[in-house]
Design brief:
Helices cover 44% and strands 19% of the residues. It is of the alpha+beta class. The strands form 2 sheets. It has a 3-stranded mixed sheet with strand order 3-4-5.
């Protein structure tokens, strides 16, 4: 993978974190830069039990992305957040894990969430 692809991936992860924060009201940030492991989620969201895989590409390969998310998620719910240029963000989750996703997000949204400071915002 070339440098421009890595930079685009990082940019996509920052944009995804920002979109999650705006849509769900939950603190989110790029995951790999903080955790560093190969199984780290691309985006860390203050909603335990979810593994976020982010794809910011023009060619869609949703099933391959989901297989990657499943392989890296352990016991967490694998969620793929994907976007093409000039298009909206889409979320892919296995139907049998949809209820888990909803309940984990609902719990995180309704819990007392500490305010997000400037240092926590994606750059």
């Amino acid at each position: 993978m070339g440098r421009s692809q890595r930079d685009k991936g990082k940019r996509g992860e920052r944009l995804a974190a920002k979109a999650i924060q705006e849509c769900l009201g939950l603190p989110a940030r790029r995951g790999v830069q903080f955790s560093g492991g190969p199984d780290s989620p691309d985006v860390e969201v203050q909603a335990p039990g979810l593994h976020w895989e982010v794809k910011f590409v023009e060619r869609e390969a949703v099933r391959a992305w989901m297989e990657q998310a499943i392989a890296e998620s352990g016991d967490d719910v694998p969620v793929v957040l994907h976007k093409r240029s000039n298009r909206e963000w889409l979320v892919t989750v296995q139907l049998e894990r949809l209820y888990d996703l909803i309940t984990r997000l609902e719990k995180a949204i309704h819990e007392e969430v500490p305010p997000v400071g400037p240092a926590d915002l994606p750059g």
